[in-house]
Design brief:
Distance between the termini: 31 Å
Strand content: 35-45%
Shape: globular
Number of domains: 1
Number of helices: 2
Helix content: 25-40%
Largest sheet: 5 strands, antiparallel
Strand order of the largest sheet: 1-5-4-3-2
CATH topology: TATA-Binding Protein
CATH class: Alpha Beta
Radius of gyration: 13 Å
Length: about 100
């Protein structure tokens, strides 16, 4: 399974970054509720895991909100490998905008 690993640095307080990420995840759950199923997240402090499926493909990963860097790791199904660069760029752009 190909992996994506995206890290984005930020300068806001860690709690604020964490809150923004959780809020955005909740928005995405609502926004994509008709195409994404079983979207789950579990947090232990600033370290979270997630999983879900869309169009028959399952993904899972981890989000770590460190004091100055957020790291997102995603395991992609092989069939999505052709889109790896686009997915990495989308995650990076989303985090950069969210944490500005």
């Amino acid at each position: 399974m190909p992996n994506i690993n995206v890290s984005v640095s930020y300068q806001i307080p860690q709690n604020e970054a964490f809150t923004r990420i959780q809020t955005r995840i909740a928005q995405m759950k609502a926004q994509y509720s008709n195409t994404v199923s079983d979207l789950r997240e579990n947090w232990s402090g600033y370290d979270g895991t997630f999983s879900g499926s869309a169009r028959g493909l399952s993904v899972s990963g981890r989000i770590v909100v460190d004091p100055s860097v957020v790291t997102v790791e995603v395991g992609l199904p092989f069939i999505a490998f052709a889109y790896k660069g686009q997915i990495e760029e989308g995650i990076r752009n989303e985090l950069t905008t969210l944490l500005a």
